[in-house]
Amino acid sequence: MAAFAFSGNERDVAGDTPAPLTVTTFPAFPTASVMPPAAEEQPDGGVIVAPELPADEDANANAGSDSDSGSDADSGSDADSDSVAAPPEEEPGGEAPEVSEQSPSAEQRQGAGSEEGRTAGAATAPVRGYVITSTYAQAGNWSTGHHTGVDLAVQVGTPVVSVLPGMVLMSATDASYGHYILIRHAEHEYSLYAHLSRLDVRQGATVSAGQQIGLSGATGNVTGPHLHFEVRTEPVFGSDIDPVAYLADHGVRL
How does pLDDT run across 54-71, given as a tens digit for each residue? Predict the structure, then answer.
């Protein structure tokens, strides 16, 4: 079953007679109701190669997290409960901590992107060599009142992989999430990867666990380069669950 989008607001240039309705056919899944307006045109099936980011050492040295500096009006779309795109998703301002290869604290553990963590069962961690800078349900100035995912600080250009097999529902751009990918793994099981610098998969593609889907970056509302990883029970914003607990249920420890 396909979903249709109608546009009947155009006027004939020769007079006031409305132009004929146009019909655009979208892929059968997801429906238009969960597709946020993109912040920029998405050519070739929705796959976007992000603009090249500055390669200065400072940009790569700062451990990033989501920024709360924006507002719903800045998100590039009407961010409501039926939108995949989220209102500004990040932690209160201030300088992000520096990524360090030293042993981090409990709040900023070195990513277990080890081979064990990435190959336990069918699941895998989304990135390797990360530092956790914001945890799930952390209080802050987010539209939901809490952080909807977990922030994994990594350098720009770090490979990002799908945590489980699934189908790509969205490969798009949003003012808050930047370049992001939404994957359906099973009924009521979705994962989202945000602030990417490059998208490597298209909407409708089938992916395997551990398959590269893009590169990490600092697009959208951020204070520094990182991956915002989110798990949802529905494709829409606001259906988030604890991503760390979700991966733990699949044998992967973040």
Answer: 333 343 444 666 754 333
